[in-house]
Amino acid sequence: MPSELHERSEAADARALAPYLPVLFDGVEAGVLVVDRDHRIVLCNRFIQRWTKREMQDLIGHTCHRVLLGREDPCPSCPTETAFRTGVQATTRRTGFDEKGRPVHLSLTSHPIKNDRDEVVFAIEQARDESATVREKASLEESLRDATRRYQTVVDHCHDAIWILDRKGSFVWFNDRARKLAGGTLADRIGRPLSAELFSPGDLTRVQRIFAETLAGHEQSYEVRVRTDDGRDLDIAVKTSPILTGDEVVGTVSFGEDVTRRKRAETELVTRNEELEILNAVSAAVNGSLDLGVVLEEALDAILRVTGLEPVGGIFLVGDGGKMELAAHRGIREEQSAKERCLEVCERLCREASASSEVVIARDCCEDPACPPAISRILVPLQSHGRIHGVMFLFPPDELPPGHFDRRLLAALGGQIGVAIENARLYRATDEDLKRKVGELTASLEEVERQRENACEAKRMQEELLALISHDLRAPLGVIAWQADRLCQQAATDPAWHKATGAILRNAGRMTAMIADLVESARLESGQLVLAEDVLSMADLVIELVEALPADDRERILLEVAPAVRAVRADRDRMERAVMNLLANALKYSPPESHITVGVGEEAGSVRVRVEDRGPGIAEEDLPRIFDRYFRAAAQRGGGSPPALDNGLGLGLYISRLIVEAHGGSVSVSSVPGQGSSFWISLPVWLPPGPQPPVAGA
Q1: CA distance 97 to 200
Q2: Residue 526, CB half-sphere, CA atoms under 13 Å: how many?
């Protein structure tokens, strides 16, 4: 009976809760369900329904452990069981797997619901899926571990060595670069202070002072030499900064860069600059003259000056048969015996150096009391192109060891002096030859001058002849032509006389044309011809020339004029003559029944006039000379034309070329023997001032 009353009471309580709980629970972003003492579901929110993909009526009456975890029995340490038993909230976490086999992490929290008798009648279970949170946390932890690994990798592979000291100056940490630079020594120094094992005593004191200043909060930069455990000395550029925790300096971090190579390179650069200055000084001294004696004296003085050696030395030249000859010396004692003994020793040593072709630093004992008992000599072969020209001997100070001198620099100086000696000898050997050649050249120039004077005289005579032709011959020819014309008119009724006077007129005309050609060519050659240039349409000019021809000739012309051909700037009369020469040749040397093609067009910024005939053509060997003065091709010389055509001086095409070239243009020809010839005149297009319109077809 009490049990039934108790159950009815619980049911009544559940019914009382029913209208309110769904509204409250559906707004919670977690699974919420109400269970009774038997763990059976009484209510659940929409989150549980979506999660389990079941409606509420399908869930009510089922145990929570079956719905949430798929278990038939309650879980060990079940929070709902704890809440019913203790009357306090309980939480636990469970891990399972979903249908795809992925781990599912649940957080289960049970809240007891008590009646007015303080009895736990229901429990509210809140189930929260923390899988995403757990996965995110795991991902973050893995990212952190990965970042840590990357950071450690970056630090270990950093170009700089990095180490950390605590406030006591003991090593706390260092990266892989520091370990490699120190050769592994730092591995045993964790917890140990700075010591003289790494630095020289002077450097250790300075590093300890800098460490103290860094602890005071000041960044420091300095260079120090570190000795590795394998005995190497490294130059390290260090930047040290304080490590702060809040406002307290807890240690220092140092970044060290190995500048050993840079320091060595700087030292090497200074050395090379000094060597370059020495080489330049000696080069300036030995290259200032081509006199062998001056070269040797200047070379010896320059070497003693720039090297700072004792002002004692000399140069032996290698003569014919390998004989050594003293050519210059400084500071050798004047006492005859001492001088002879010193030079004798130097000559012997220089001969040995000459044979070895290498810089030698030799010591020699001299028994003569005038000489030091033991002296050193630097012997420098003077060579170029593999040939020894001499040997220079120098005396280094006694306090300097032989290794103090750079043999490479001394060899370079010997090479410079050797080249200067070779140049001086070549100059001496070729001096007479040069004088002889200068004499020959002078004679040749005098001969050229004589020839030039003869040419000027010939030109003067040519000009006088042209003046004679143009003045003295034109007048009688004019009289002959005038009188022949009168005779021709009076003898019009007599055919024989009319024919004779006509022949006189024709030949007088030919002679007048020849004289005109000679005068014109002479003016063009001498540059005396003044062109009256103006804007000219070559298309219009060609059309007018064709229309002015006799009817028989005009009917043979096939005219091809392209549209919109631009103008040129030219002397109309001269250009008319150039074109007419081509037309006359084409009409003269092609069969009477054949056609002549005359074309005008524009190509690549040039106006081109083409005259094409169907005549006998021009032999290939004559084409290069067809525009030369007085040249006449085989057809023009009678080799391929009737005798009647064998006339003229061969100046027509030559004059055409000179006229066109005087206008900045060019002429050309192509021909096939037996098929005809094509002549071209090309003149640059005239461009008026100002912006230019686009060319059609461009």
Answers
A1: 67
A2: 14
Helix (H) / strand (E) containing 161: strand 161-166
Element (H, E) at 517: helix 495-526
pLDDT of residue 492: 63
Banded pLDDT at 506 (limits 50, 70, 90) = low
Q: pTM to 2 decimals?
A: 0.35
Residue 144 amino acid letter = L
What's the mean pLDDT in 469-492?
64
| 331-341 pLDDT tens trace | 776 554 455 55
Min mean pLDDT across 15-24, 80-89, 91-100, 491-500 is at 15-24
What CA–CA distance (Å, rounded) separates 587 from 613?
Answer: 8
Sheet holding 120-129, edge to edge: 41-44, 31-35, 120-129, 103-114, 90-97
What is the chain's mean pLDDT, rounded? 76
Residue 9 scores a pLDDT above 60? no
Average pLDDT over residues 236-258: 86
Strand locations in 228-359 (E): 233-245, 248-258, 313-318, 324-330
What's the farthest any 2 CA atoms get from each other in the chain?
180
Nearest CA among 678, 521, 695 for reference residue 609: 678
Contact of 677 with 612, CB cutoff 8 Å: yes
pLDDT in the model for residue 697: 42
* pLDDT at site 538: 92
**φ, ψ of residue 649 in degrees (nearest 5):** -100, -5
DSSP assignments along 348-385, one per residue = HHHHHHHHHTS-EEEEEE--STTS-SEEEEEEEEEEET
What are the angstrom distances between the C-alpha of 481 and each of 470, 489, 503, 517? 16, 12, 10, 18
Query: Looking up tokens 């260090």, which residue turns up?
Result: 238
- What is the distance between the alpha carbons of residues 34 and 437, in angstroms, rounded to a whole number? 128
CA neighbor of 361 nearest in space, from 382, 383, 377: 377
Q: 537-567: buried (b, 16+ CB within 10 Å) or exposed (e) per residue?
A: bbbebbeeebeebeeebeebbeeebeeebbb
Distance CA 40, CA 122 (A): 10
Average pLDDT over residues 186-199: 69
